[in-house]
Structure formats: structure tokens, C-alpha cells
Design a protein that fits this description.
324 residues, alpha/beta, 5-stranded mixed beta sheet, globular
């Protein structure tokens, strides 16, 4: 049996993974070991990750000859060709870090670095809702909105590794800000965007002299988040449901662009869609039907991520699988 390693680097925590690399492995037998730890500076974090990975291999008597490689999943910007982390906003001090070279020297195995959206796309393609399809789009739909593209049976990164930055698409002249752009896809369809949308819509009620149950006073506006609004919507709050309907409408508009341009078999959505599908899908489907070409729309399904909260673990390991 062969094995693979993964490292999921996040703003507050990291996870080192050990996975099985046997042919035909299914997701239930893929992740063999996992150890999480707090993210620190690059030198400390990568040193600890290397020691944990080496310990996992030693603890199971696995030799380096049986390790396919190490996949590293991290938010961008990155230089994936050179394996360097280029100062992501959630990783202070991680400026131009040659992560692939550092880990290759520590562990003696091939290392592949990819942004988290691309890594999650591979995970959902190998083990989740995109399994068995040749053309798949994965949308993160979490703190931000990015896409990983599986086109014609392979990950598509673009000329300079920037393919999939769909959050930058402008869907409206005005609206919540995402990617530094008002009215962007990320502005309407991300955790931060939903919070902005909620604050704007609640503020309008306050200006009309209303006191909505969702947020009775202006002082409470900063407390509105995608989760608090989603919880209120699930409990039946009319304004909260309206906020999620607006988000769903713009989600449908953005998906229509992707369906018409890329003609995928499946679009997989993570995080917020996975948790709030019932709030978002009706408006999303209505607008998607209005805005997309029927011949492209009819061969594409929209599905929540199949790997749920474990997607980050599978994502890092899936990068190592892709090295085969």
C-alpha cells in the first residue's frame, strides 16, 4: 500500500493528515490520521507540521518510499508553480514563504501547493458530490467566494494560476463589497457579504422608523452575521428570510454565468450553501432558470458539498493524490 500526506493551513489552525493512496480507495478508508495545531509564524508552523508528519509515518512503520507526496492547501495569493505562499490576508507574516521547498527538505517527498478552492474541488471530485463527473465547478461560499474548476477531467488553474476567481465578477452596479468591488459575486454570496446585505436591509427598516425583531436597534447592527441571520431565517423571521432570498437570487445569477460559459455537469457549493440550502435554493433555481441557456442548464445539477466539514482534510490529501 502507498500513502499520502496533507497539510491544511488556515488562519488560526492547521491540520496534518495521513491518507491511504491505494487504488480505488473510497472516502471512508482514505483519512488514516489527523492532528491539528494552532497556526503560528511560517518557520514554527512548518517545523511543527514536518515533525508531526514524520511522527505519523514512524508510528505506523511507513517508509518514505511508500509516500506518494504531500499536498498543501492554503488560501491565496500563492505562486503554485514555485510552491510559495505570497502573503494571504489571514496569515500575517507569511510573505513569499517557499513552503514546498521547506517541506520537501524536511520530509524528502514531493510537495504540491494549491489554493484551498482548487484543493477542495479535487476533494469533491475524488470523494464527494462531484465524483464520476468530468466537468465540475466547486464554489467555496464561506468567508469569501472562490472557485475550483475541474474541466475535461483535470484541474484547470489558468495561465498564471488565477483561474476560478469568480468572486470578482460584478453582478450589480451597487451592493455589498467583496474582492474590493461593490456588487460583486462575493459581495452577495459569502459570509461577509451576507452580513453587509443584512446590515443594509435592516438599516433601511430603522430609517423608516421600524424595529425589526432581527435587529431592533442600530447599535446591534455589527452583531449581524451570516449565521445569526441564517438561524433567524430558519426560525421563521421574515426579514432574515428575505435577506437569504436576495442572496439566493444573486447566487442564481452568478451560477447562470458559469453554466453558460463552462457548461459543467455539476456545480458543488460548500460552507454556507451546505448549511442553508433550504433558504437559498428556491430563489437560486428561479433565477438560474431565467438567466441560463436551457441546453446548458438541463445537463447541470447544483449540489451541496458531499464532504461537509471534513472537506479541508480531504482537500490537502487530494493534492497528493493528484501527484501520481
Amino acid at each position: 500500500m502507498a500513502y499520502c500526506l496533507g497539510l491544511d493551513i488556515g488562519g488560526t489552525k492547521c491540520a496534518v493528515l495521513l491518507g491511504s493512496d491505494k487504488p480505488g480507495v473510497d472516502k471512508d478508508g482514505f483519512v488514516l490520521d489527523r492532528q491539528a495545531f494552532a497556526t503560528a509564524g511560517p518557520a514554527e508552523t512548518l517545523d511543527k507540521a514536518g515533525r508531526i508528519a514524520a511522527g505519523m509515518l514512524a508510528g505506523r512503520g511507513i517508509s518514505l518510499e511508500d509516500v506518494t507526496g504531500l499536498g498543501v492547501s492554503c488560501g491565496g495569493p500563492l505562486d503554485t508553480a514555485l510552491g510559495r505562499i505570497k502573503g494571504p490576508p489571514n496569515l500575517c507574516g507569511w510573505d513569499d514563504v517557499p513552503v514546498a521547498n521547506i517541506l520537501r527538505e524536511k520530509l524528502g517527498v514531493p510537495v504540491r501547493l494549491e489554493n484551498d478552492a482548487n484543493a477542495c474541488a479535487l476533494a469533491e471530485w475524488h470523494f464527494g458530490a462531484g465524483r464520476g463527473n468530468r466537468n465540475m465547478i466547486f464554489l467555496t461560499f464561506g468567508t469569501g467566494l472562490g472557485a475550483g474548476l475541474i474541466l475535461d477531467g483535470r484541474l484547470y488553474a489558468g495561465t498564471s494560476g488565477m483561474a476560478g476567481e469568480v468572486g470578482h465578477l460584478r453582478l450589480s452596479a451597487f451592493g455589498p463589497v467583496g474582492y474590493g468591488k461593490a456588487g460583486s459575486f462575493e459581495g452577495f454570496c459569502s459570509g461577509g457579504g451576507i452580513a453587509q446585505l443584512a446590515q443594509s436591509m435592516v438599516r433601511e427598516r430603522h430609517q423608516r422608523g421600524e424595529k425589526p425583531a432581527l435587529c431592533p436597534t442600530p447599535e446591534e447592527l455589527p452583531l449581524l452575521t451570516a449565521k445569526t441571520v441564517g438561524d433567524a431565517a430558519e426560525a421563521g423571521d421574515a426579514l432574515a428570510r428575505e435577506i437569504y432570498t436576495v442572496c439566493g437570487e444573486y447566487l442564481g445569477r452568478g451560477l447562470a454565468v458559469l453554466v453558460d460559459i463552462l457548461n459543467p455537469e455539476v456545480i458543488v457549493l460548500g460552507s454556507i450553501f451546505q448549511r442553508s440550502e433550504g433558504l437559498l435554493r428556491p430563489a437560486m433555481e428561479r433565477v438560474l432558470r431565467q438567466e441560463s441557456l436551457p441546453h446548458a442548464r438541463n445537463v447541470c445539477r447544483v449540489a451541496p458539498a458531499g464532504l461537509a466539514e471534513a472537506i479541508g482534510d480531504y482537500a490537502a490529501l487530494s493534492l497528493a493524490l493528484a501527484n501520481r
